[in-house]
Amino acid sequence: MKQNSYLGGLIHAIGSLLTGMKTSMTVFLRQKTTEQYPENRATLKLSPRFRGTLIMPHNDNNEHRCVACGLCQMACPNDTIRVTSHTVETEDGKKKKVLEKYEYDLGSCMFCQLCVNACPHDAITFDQNFEHAVFDRTRLVLTLNHPGSHTEEKKKSATPQSEAAKQAVICTNNNL
């Protein structure tokens, strides 16, 4: 009986060994998925949905779309965004908020994108940058609006009613 159990154990051990070798060889023959990161920066492909650093895009005239409404600041669960603004009076007597400083603390951000979704003007977005390593935490607090930047002016577009009114005037003048 000892020989039978010894032989049975040996067969079971060889079966387990072959199962492990089969698994190892299957993984060994698969295509590599590990990327050699520092060497392949030029060919590195990230998912389009990847959320890197929060940015505020500016155009060639150093203008941004942020109107300092503060919705992104209220939507952020970690208080990583601080919007500082002041109020000015426009030519037509209305009060308007003007962005002074837009601070973003990258160190406490969860990259949840609630701030981007809350922004009604699409003033902020995430880019593909993922290299955030620094030696000093204060370097993780970023000011997103560029020095001297200001809000884009809304282009005055004709409303459909005014276009219809112009067409009516043209038709009336042609009939006279």
UniProtKB/TrEMBL annotation:
Assigned EC number: 7.1.1.-
Subcellular location: Cell inner membrane
Pfam families on file: Fer4_7 (PF12838)
Cofactor (UniProt): [4Fe-4S] cluster
Cofactor: binding comment: Binds 2 [4Fe-4S] clusters per subunit.
Broadest EC class assigned to this enzyme: translocase
HAMAP family: NDH1_NuoI (MF_01351)
Name the UniProt record assigns to this protein: NADH-quinone oxidoreductase subunit I
Organism of provenance: Bacteroides helcogenes (strain ATCC 35417 / DSM 20613 / JCM 6297 / CCUG 15421 / P 36-108)
